[in-house]
Amino acid sequence: MNRKRTHVLIAGGGVAALEAAIALRELAADSVDLELLSPDEYFAYRPLAVTLPFDETEAMRFPLSQLADAVGATATRGALTGIDAWRHVAHTSTNRDVGYDVLLVACGALPLPSIEGALTFRGPSDADLVRHVLDEVARDEIRSVAFVVPWGPAWPLPAYELALLAGSHLGRRGELWVVTPEKEPLQLFGGPASVAVRELLEARNVRLRTDAYAERFVDGRLELVPDEPLEVDRVIALPRLAGTPIDGIPQTIEGFIPVDDHGRVHGVADVYAAGDATSFPVKHGGLATQQALAAAEMIAAKSGADVDPQPFRPVVHGLLLTGSEPRFFRRELHGTAENEPVAASEALWWPSAKIAGRHLGPFLATLVGHPEPHVEPPDDALAVQVPLEHDLLDELDLGRFPTGDDTPDGEPELSAVSAMDVSEVAPEDTLGEIAERMLRDDLSAALVCEHGRLIGILTTHDLIGAFAARAHPSEARARQWMTAEPITLDPPWNRASAARVMRAYGIRHLPLVEHGDRRPVGMLYLEEEAPAVMPVGLGF
Ligand SMILES: Cc1cc2nc3c(=O)[nH]c(=O)nc-3n(C[C@H](O)[C@H](O)[C@H](O)COP(=O)(O)OP(=O)(O)OC[C@H]3O[C@@H](n4cnc5c(N)ncnc54)[C@H](O)[C@@H]3O)c2cc1C
Predict the structure, then answer these.
(1) Rounded to the nearest whole angstrom, what is the distance from the C-alpha of residue 450 to the centroid of ligand 1?
(2) Whether 157 contacts 285, CB under 8 Å
(3) Domain 6-109+242-302 has CATH 3.30.420.40
(4) Residue 399 Cα, ligand 1 centroid: separation in angstroms?
């Protein structure tokens, strides 16, 4: 019997999208049709953007239609804006609806300015900014520059690369800084990487401020929590990342999509997500490919291919450009890690590309004729492969603004924080039922709980957004429209830290949960206009 081919719509034209497309072609060529939906004409290879301010080469990019052809996919221009999960239809920015059997969301993250008053380095398009600042130092017009890793979801690696490359470029001229909320430099990659990076920074005359959350840059002062300000002439910050709002898919306050270890979006049938778009706390190209591969294997198996889908087992690979010999870092972030973190001057994976992807690496290496930067593989180099270590990820704890605060309760602005009643709803409750309950109890938010654990929050703002997007009150469920994995406060609670956290995230509702089991025990409310920090209309 002929089985109908599964139409897989991949929203995205970047790292995760391409890895998934190549993997699906390899694993399930006879059972899937592939369509790439992306607003961009090109796939831009961003990791090498850090070299552009120094060598004035062209940014590396590939026409997406050519890549789609090469993997046997069709390419459609447009951005995914929402889904009708019931009808399996994707809504796009071109007002065209696209049907799917399976949807993989691989839209990446939006790079937003993270620090008021600072320059932001998002990739190739900002190379000139950095070049200009370095020229100012070279001409002795300014003296000091800080490269800043922001708090919140971010790509930390490029800040170190820019600082090291700048140190190498400027010699002993000027005063360079790296400022980061990490406890150790490039902490994600493990102890040996942090030691190597400290040494490299010292050798390049770059100073380091760790455990420092940069807030804004005003009048030559970079304001830091909890430290004293740093006086510098220019600040070049990496962007804070946020997800793209997509109607009908659960997203966190930052707009990211929670998924399981096979990339399945909870509670939305046949929808998967991979890469920076997901709520996995570490944003990195190599991890995006591993998530994409896990999703592709599951999609292939469900489409009838003979595949044993393996879960996402994150292993982070970092190739650090230093201005001389590159450094390679590898660390298993999963609970069953067999190998210690490694830092080496020789390649630890092959091809030794900056984005380590099982399929994408070799595919791009073939396209450009050679892998970059060119390093001979050692005999014992591991093929890129890719379990979850939640405690370890929590320990890294870089994503969230610090809640500790010694501001005494009772300061005038704290009177704006008040307690409100908690209303618990189930993920499968309809929006109509919840709206009715909120109206009856005069509440502006409900907590979405599964087995007593908090998994989301639904505010009047979310309800208005859902109804504006024509969600049906008796069909649309809390799970699809809630803000997933909401920002919460663990004990010990105090109103000062609550106010600080709500202001930092631009939210007005802050659930209080028991430490460890995420059972909600209360809710705080901020009675003031919250600043719009994140561009997602969720959770206010
Ligand atoms: C300067 C710099 C250096 C970096 N260095 C490294 C490194 O050395 N190693 C490493 O592993 N990672 C590195 N990264 C991070 C890496 O680039 C990202 O983690 C990776 O690209 C994430 O892959 P993704 O597929 O999730 O998103 P992306 O690669 O960003 O792709 C997202 C795609 O989705 C498209 N899209 C956006 N919105 C929509 C929509 N609504 N509908 C449909 N399509 C949409 C975009 O046009 C794009 O094609 C670096 C990043 C930067 C900026």
Answers:
(1) 32
(2) no
(3) no
(4) 18
